[in-house]
Amino acid sequence: MPKNHVITIDQEVETMKKQMKEAPKLLHKSAEFFNYMVDRPQEVLKKYANHDGKHLLDFFRKSFINNNRDSVTTSSVTRSSISRNSVVPEAIDKPNHSLKLIKPATKLVTAGVKFKANHQADSLLDIKFQDGLLLIPQINMDDFYSAFFLNCMAFEQCYFHCTKDITTYVVFMGCLMNTSADVSLLSHNKIIENYFGTDKEVAKFFNEVGKDVAFDIKNNYLKDLFVELNEYCKNGWHVNWAGFKHTYFASPWAAVSAFAAVLLLSLAVLQTLYTVVSYYKKDGDK
Residues 210-220: pLDDT tens digits? Predict the structure, then answer.
């Protein structure tokens, strides 16, 4: 009887070892299935073959996080943690007034910012800003992505020792998409492929998900981009020129009206010059 009991324990140990060896394979197979849902090349997932996670969600979440990027891990919610609609508190030392949440997409356009979809990015988190051009990877927004964002944010909020990159991304996109007009602008630039619902519903989703979430404006992977965007949108020639184009060339009729006004002004100036020249010419003939 004891002998049979020992054999049973050995069998259990061997079974557990076998399961532990097969667990990573099962994890990766499951991740490959979900990878098809987000229309991502399998080569991207292979880069993270040696990575692990606490569970399937964590592993799949990590496959979006670039290890070379300056991801930030926070162990607690600090004094600078804010919600999307909050005002950024001043830092104790050397406050950076440009480190704050950005304006919606439509207002950024009037400040001279241009949008372009980045189709070469491996991850939707790889957002870049260069010389007035905001490069954002395309996202096929649907029910899967909405569930993915909700679950990842819940995990990042509850588990303090992981990076908050998905939360940062959702807050950033929520800032950009304040209204349906902002969503329409991003859709026009091929950044958003909307399979979720109306533009209003997409804006509502990002606004509600990012609202009142614990988010550290000073401690996230996009903090430098927040500063660069806000600095760019301060008064400058490109801001004034963009505002002029938006006001007078936003539509064909506005452009025609502006052209007519310039033409009338030019004719008025020419008439004034002709009158002055004629006056002095007559005066000279006398």
Answer: 887 888 999 99
Backbone angles phi, psi at 137, to 5 degrees: -60, 145
Task: List helix spans (H) across the chain.
Answer: 2-37, 42-46, 56-62, 105-110, 143-158, 165-176, 180-188, 199-210, 223-232, 237-248, 252-285
Which residues in 239-252 are b (16+ Cβ under 10 Å) and which e? beebeebeeeeeee
Instruction: Check: CB of residue 181 under 8 Å from CB of residue 106.
Output: yes
C-alpha pair distances (Å), 145 with each of 83, 106, 139, 154 = 22, 24, 9, 14
| Contact between residue 156 and residue 146 where contact means Cβ atoms under 8 Å apart | no
Which of residues 93 and 104 earns the better pLDDT score? 104
Report d(CA 38, CA 121) in Å as an integer.
14
